[in-house]
Amino acid sequence: MVEQGTHKPLVGSSTLPPGTATKMAWVYILRGSGGRHYIGSWVDLDARFVQHLRGHTATTKRLGAMIEIVRRKEVPNLEEAGRIERALKRKKNPALAIYYLQR
How many domains does the chain have? Predict the structure, then answer.
């Protein structure tokens, strides 16, 4: 099962630090100890993963105590990462999402 949070559209620099939208970004898939998956995207994958581990993201709190990155893919910018993230979430199939990010 893929966890989906409520996603709000990004609004200019009020949400993102200046220059973030043009930096390389990541699309990633997490798996929790209960077997659930989470698909996300961000520019600093290491910092975002730490946020997930600390429970700063409500959706990933439900993944369980152990969270791992099972697949990740670097893309040219955050806009592209968000587009891929939304497409993968629409599939509602973690195995297909993992397969796509392997390519």
Answer: 1
Is 98 contained in some domain? yes
10 inside domain = no
pLDDT in tens, the chain (103 residues): 555 554 444 433 345 566 666 789 999 999 999 899 999 999 999 999 999 998 888 888 888 889 999 999 999 999 999 999 999 999 999 999 999 998 8
Q: What is the model's pTM?
A: 0.78
SS3 sequence of the chain = CEECCCCCCCCHHHHCCCCHHHCCEEEEEEEECCCCEEEEEECCHHHHHHHHHCCCCHHHHCCCCCEEEEEEEEECCHHHHHHHHHHHHHHCCHHHHHHHHHC
CATH of residue 48's domain is 3.40.1440
| In-domain check, residue 82 | yes
